[in-house]
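Exercise 7b. C-alpha cells:
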C-alpha cells in the first residue's frame, strides 16, 4: 500500500533535534546486524512506501524509502529491466531505503557498478528536520559535490532517506555460468586475466575448489566468451548466484564471525585462518571464523584494502576499518553539517559518528 508520511517523519526528527534526543532509524530490519548497535528512540520509515514514478523508456525509477525491495524489482522485471548492482535482501522485509543507506551491492558489482553509481537523486531529512533534495532523474544533473551519492553507505548517519531515484538497465538477453576446477592462485589469476579482455563478465566466485564465471549479454557474445573461457555449464545458475548474494550458500552457514575484506583484485590468496570465499574478480574476500582483527586489518591493508566485521562477533568495538585521520576529520565535518546535534543513528558506523 502506497503511503507518504514525510511530514510525520519530519516532525519526529525536528522534535528529537529540539530535545537533543538520538533516533534509531529502522524499516525492514533485515540489515540491523551491520555495523555497531545504534541507540535512541525508534524512527520507523517502513510505512513511507510506494513507487512514485517509473519511466521504463527513460530507465529511471523513483520510490519512497520504505518501499519493499521486492516490489521495486518486480516492477522492473515486468519491463525486462533490473537494478544492475544486484542488491542483497537478507530477508523478505528488505526496503529500498535500507539497501541504499547500507550501500550494499551483489555479485554484478565489479562489472556493472556499485549502488552509488546508479543513484540519480534523493530526498532526505537532515538532523534538524529540514527537507533536502539533491540530484534529479537524469545522469547529468550534478554541478559540484554529489550529495545524493554521499548518502549511499552512510547508514542513516547523515540523513533520513525519503525518496530515491535510480538508473535501471535492461536485463541481459542471455546468461550462463561456467564452472572450472582451480587452485586459489589460478582462480584469482583467471578472474583478473578475463577482466582485462572484452568479455561479457557479470559475476565471478571461487569457493575454495571451483571457480564460477557468469556471462551476460547478447547470445553471440556469451557463446564466444564461453568458448574462450571453457568449463562446464552450471545448472540452476540463478539459484547459485542468489544463494551467494543472500548468503545462503553453505560457506556462510554457522554462527562464526563473517569478515569482509576488500582488497586489490590481483592480490594473491591471503594466508589467514578460517575459510575463504572470493568474489568480485578477486576484490572481495569473505573470511569465516574466529580471527584476530588486528591481523586481518594488517593483511587487508598489505593487500591494498581494508577489513570489516560483517556479521557475528562483538559489536561494541569498531566493526569497520579505522579511517585515516584526514578522512575522519572530513567525516566529522559532514556529520556536523547534516546532523549538528548527532541525533541520527549515533554510533552506527563508528563510536565517534
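Sequence design result:
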Amino acid at each position: 500500500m502506497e503511503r507518504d508520511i514525510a511530514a510525520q517523519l519530519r516532525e519526529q526528527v525536528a522534535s528529537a533535534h529540539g530535545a537533543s534526543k538520538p533516533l534509531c532509524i529502522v524499516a525492514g530490519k533485515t540489515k540491523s546486524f551491520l555495523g555497531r548497535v545504534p541507540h535512541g528512540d525508534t524512527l520507523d520509515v517502513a510505512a513511507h512506501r510506494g513507487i512514485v514514478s517509473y519511466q521504463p523508456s527513460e530507465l529511471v525509477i523513483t520510490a519512497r524509502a520504505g518501499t519493499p525491495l521486492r516490489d521495486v524489482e518486480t516492477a522492473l522485471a515486468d519491463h525486462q529491466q533490473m537494478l544492475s548492482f544486484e542488491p542483497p535482501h537478507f530477508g523478505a522485509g528488505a526496503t529500498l531505503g535500507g539497501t541504499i543507506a547500507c550501500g550494499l551491492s551483489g555479485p554484478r558489482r565489479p562489472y556493472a557498478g556499485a549502488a552509488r553509481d546508479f543513484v540519480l537523486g534523493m530526498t532526505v531529512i537532515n538532523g534538524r528536520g529540514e527537507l533536502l533534495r539533491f540530484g534529479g532523474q537524469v545522469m547529468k544533473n550534478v554541478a559540484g559535490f554529489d550529495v545524493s551519492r554521499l548518502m549511499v553507505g552512510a547508514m542513516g548517519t547523515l540523513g533520513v532517506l525519503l525518496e530515491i531515484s535510480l538508473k535501471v538497465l535492461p536485463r541481459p538477453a542471455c546468461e550462463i555460468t561456467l564452472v572450472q576446477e582451480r587452485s586459489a592462485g589460478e582462480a584469482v589469476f583467471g578472474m583478473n586475466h578475463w577482466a582485462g579482455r572484452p568479455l561479457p563478465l557479470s559475476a565471478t566466485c571461487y569457493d575454495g575448489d571451483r571457480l564460477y564465471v557468469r556471462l551476460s549479454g547478447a547470445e553471440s557474445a556469451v557463446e564466444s566468451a564461453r568458448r574462450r573461457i571453457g568449463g562446464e555449464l552450471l545448472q540452476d545458475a540463478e539459484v547459485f548466484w542468489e544463494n551467494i548474494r543472500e548468503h545462503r550458500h553453505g560457506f556462510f552457514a554457522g554462527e562464526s564471525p563473517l569478515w569482509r575484506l576488500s582488497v586489490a583484485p590481483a592480490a594473491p590468496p591471503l594466508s589467514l585462518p578460517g575459510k575463504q570465499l572470493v568474489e568480485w574478480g578477486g576484490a572481495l574476500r569473505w573470511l569465516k571464523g574466529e580471527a584476530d582483527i588486528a591481523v586481518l586489518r594488517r593483511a587487508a591493508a598489505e593487500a591494498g584494502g581494508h577489513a570489516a566485521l560483517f556479521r557475528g562477533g562483538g559489536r561494541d568495538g569498531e566493526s569497520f576499518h579505522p579511517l585515516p585521520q584526514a578522512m575522519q576529520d572530513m567525516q566529522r565535518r559532514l556529520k556536523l553539517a547534516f546532523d549538528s546535534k548527532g541525533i541520527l543513528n549515533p554510533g552506527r558506523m563508528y563510536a565517534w559518528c
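Instructor comment: Residues 139-144 have pLDDT under 50 and may be disordered. The chain is about 25% helix and 25% strand.
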